[in-house]
């Protein structure tokens, strides 16, 4: 939302009075005087008019978790424990997940209450790389590298997957980088080359990497640099 709209809506003040207040240096955004009515604001912004707070900022949360296998990527479930059950923060009910993992998959999960931030991560067109460690049932054929780079046609969605980088690490293990997040994508890709995924672990999303200090089930707030890195990935 733009600043002038927020001010105009305050006690139905109207647009003209809002512009006068902004131009008259009566408005402060996060403590700084702003004279541009188009200045962007959201629910995490503090806005003052004549030194009275007219919008108190909500607390923005950006968290990373090391999801253990067996925990559901959901905020609520009647049957299984969820990632939210592992978090003890008074505002945890405001969180949503930016990119789910299957129940059996472990690794990096991001949670936030900032919808614009999570949208940037999840939007397919942003092509944010997601890196997975994969262990397979059968040996991985060297030709799979080219097949994954070429892409697979998924007829249920009528799409061809974006080129994916497969690096074979061992007979049955590989690191896979995807630039999108389709339903069961890694499992479906390996199935298409006649193999099966035995275990799957997400190491990173864009510039955010699961850090070694987080054992399975642990979480922490992202640093400012990690939070900001999303817009640059
Ligand atoms: N691909 C999968 O098949 N499962 C996941 O959890 C993530 C990507």
Comma- or semicolon-separated keywords:
4-stranded antiparallel β-sheet, alpha+beta, 21% helix, 6 helices, Structural Genomics Hypothetical 15.5 Kd Protein In mrcA-pckA Intergenic Region, Chain A, 9-stranded mixed β-sheet, 233 residues, 2 domains, binds uracil, Pseudouridine synthase, elongated
Structure description:
The protein is an alpha+beta fold and 233 residues long. It has two domains: 3-55, Structural Genomics Hypothetical 15.5 Kd Protein In mrcA-pckA Intergenic Region, Chain A (Roll); 62-232, Pseudouridine synthase. Helices cover 21% and strands 27% of the residues. The strands form three sheets. Strands 5, 6, 7, 8, 11, 12, 13, 14 and 15 form a nine-stranded mixed beta sheet that branches. Strand 9 and strand 10 (159-160) form a beta hairpin. It is elongated. 27% of the residues are buried. The site of uracil has 8 residues, from helix 5.
Helix content: 10-25%
Tell me the CATH topology of the largest domain. Pseudouridine synthase
> In angstroms, what is the radius of gyration?
22 Å
* Helix and strand sequence: HHEEEEEEEHEHEEEEHEEEH
Hetero groups in this structure are: uracil
Tell me about the largest β-sheet: 9 strands, mixed
Query: Distance between termini?
Result: 24 Å
Quote the average pLDDT.
Answer: 94
By DSSP, the count of extended strands is: 15
The CATH homology group name of the largest domain = Pseudouridine synthase
Please tally the helical runs, counting DSSP H or I stretches of 4 or more residues: 6
Number of domains: 2
Strand share of the residues? 25-35%
Query: Uncertain runs with pLDDT below 50, 5 residues or more?
Result: none
CATH architecture of the largest domain: 2-Layer Sandwich
The backbone outline, from C-alpha atoms, is elongated
| CATH class assignment of the largest domain | Alpha Beta
> Which structural class matches the secondary elements?
alpha+beta
User: What would you call the quaternary organization?
Assistant: single chain
């Amino acid at each position: 939302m733009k600043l002038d709209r927020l001010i105009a809506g305050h006690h139905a003040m109207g647009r003209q009075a809002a512009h006068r207040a902004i131009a008259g240096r009566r408005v402060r955004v996060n403590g700084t005087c702003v004279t541009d009515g188009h200045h962007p604001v959201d629910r995490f912004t503090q806005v003052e008019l004549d030194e009275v707070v007219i919008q108190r900022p909500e607390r923005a949360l950006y968290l990373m978790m090391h999801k253990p296998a067996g925990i559901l990527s959901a905020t609520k479930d009647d049957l299984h424990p969820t990632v939210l059950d592992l978090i003890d923060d008074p505002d945890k009910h405001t969180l949503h997940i930016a990119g789910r993992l299957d129940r059996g998959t472990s690794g990096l999960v991001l949670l936030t209450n900032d919808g614009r931030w999570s949208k940037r991560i999840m939007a397919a067109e942003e092509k944010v790389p997601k890196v997975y460690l994969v262990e397979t049932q059968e040996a991985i054929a060297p030709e799979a590298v080219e097949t994954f780079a070429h892409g697979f046609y998924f007829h249920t969605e009528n799409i061809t997957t974006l080129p994916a980088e497969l690096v074979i690490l061992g007979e049955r293990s590989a690191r896979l980088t995807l630039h999108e997040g389709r339903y069961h994508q890694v499992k479906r890709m390996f199935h298409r080359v006649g193999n099966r995924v035995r275990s799957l672990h997400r190491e990173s999303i864009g510039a955010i990497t699961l850090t070694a200090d987080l054992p399975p089930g642990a979480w922490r707030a992202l640093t400012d640099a990690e939070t900001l890195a999303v817009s640059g990935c």
